[in-house]
């Protein structure tokens, strides 16, 4: 398993106005790489560009040596990229088990699907207890587990996680970040896009700071946490 992502000089526009302006960054295999930035900085647009939902107008996105810049979304996912979207976005009228199965829709082997689901239930015992419960009736933290589990059902090499702390209680935020660390310990590369600086830097190996569509800083968590700009922007 590898999971190396390279983004080189990416420009992405909406209605001819650039939202991303020359973004370059790397996610190294087996590591947690974070992207910090406030609302409107372009974080979600970058995820959409990686997934092929909003293709860049210039630049290259390379995953494990393959240029995926112009690939449709289903082929990006087939290459080994999965995404946990902002706001969780479970299917509320489907059960936990049905939500998880949707994550394995490209997997031809039912035996493999069952094995992966069993692994998800080991990772999230709470989901095992609620496997026939409708996802829409669950708490925000439980829905976050469903969303993460669904992303893992494809056995990705790279997991894109967009704002995992959004709208969650501090207890569930802490639990989710512990789960993200456990997932990474299994060898899955993680690109963590967040505003929660404290928790994110605590589990990341390397990070970037995005502002107005540009990378304005990069470094180790300790380097980023000590900079004057980040202190002022996030810690007052």
Explain the layout of strands and helices.
Layout: E1 5-14, E2 17-27, E3 32-36, H1 43-51, E4 58-63, E5 66-67, H2 73-78, E6 81-84, H3 96-102, H4 110-123, H5 125-129, H6 140-152, E7 158-162, H7 170-185, E8 189-194, H8 197-203, E9 206-211, E10 214-219, H9 221-226, H10 228-235
Parallel strand pairs: 3-8, 3-9, 6-7, 7-8
Antiparallel strand pairs: 1-2, 1-4, 4-5, 9-10
Helix pairs in contact: 3-6
Polypeptide structure, described:
The chain is globular. A hairpin with a 2-residue loop joins strand 1 and strand 2 (17-27). It has helices spanning 43-51, 73-78, 96-102, 110-123, 125-129, 140-152, 170-185, 197-203, 221-226, 228-235, and strands spanning 5-14, 17-27, 32-36, 58-63, 66-67, 81-84, 158-162, 189-194, 206-211, 214-219. Helix 3 runs parallel beside helix 6. It is of the alpha/beta class and 236 residues long.
């Amino acid at each position: 398993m590898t999971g190396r992502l390279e983004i080189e000089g990416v420009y992405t526009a909406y209605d001819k106005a650039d939202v991303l302006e020359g973004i370059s960054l790397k996610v190294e295999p087996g590591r947690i790489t974070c992207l910090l930035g406030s609302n409107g900085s372009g974080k979600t647009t970058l995820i959409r560009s990686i997934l092929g939902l909003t293709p860049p107008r210039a630049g290259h996105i390379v995953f494990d040596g393959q240029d995926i810049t112009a690939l449709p979304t289903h082929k990006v996912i087939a290459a080994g990229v999965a995404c946990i979207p902002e706001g969780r976005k479970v299917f509320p009228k489907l059960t936990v088990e049905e939500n998880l199965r949707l994550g394995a829709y490209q997997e031809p082997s039912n035996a493999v699907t069952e094995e992966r689901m069993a692994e998800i239930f080991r990772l999230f015992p709470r989901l095992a207890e609620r496997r026939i419960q409708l996802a829409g009736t669950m708490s925000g933290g439980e829905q976050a587990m469903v969303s993460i589990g669904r992303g893992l059902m494809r056995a990705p090499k790279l997991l894109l996680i967009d704002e995992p702390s959004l709208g969650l209680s501090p207890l569930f935020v802490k639990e989710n970040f512990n789960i993200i660390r456990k997932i990474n310990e299994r060898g899955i590369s993680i690109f963590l896009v967040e505003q929660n600086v404290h928790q994110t830097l605590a589990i990341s190996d390397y990070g970037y700071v995005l502002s107005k569509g540009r990378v304005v800083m990069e470094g180790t968590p300790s380097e980023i946490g000590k900079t004057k700009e980040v202190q002022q922007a996030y810690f007052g």
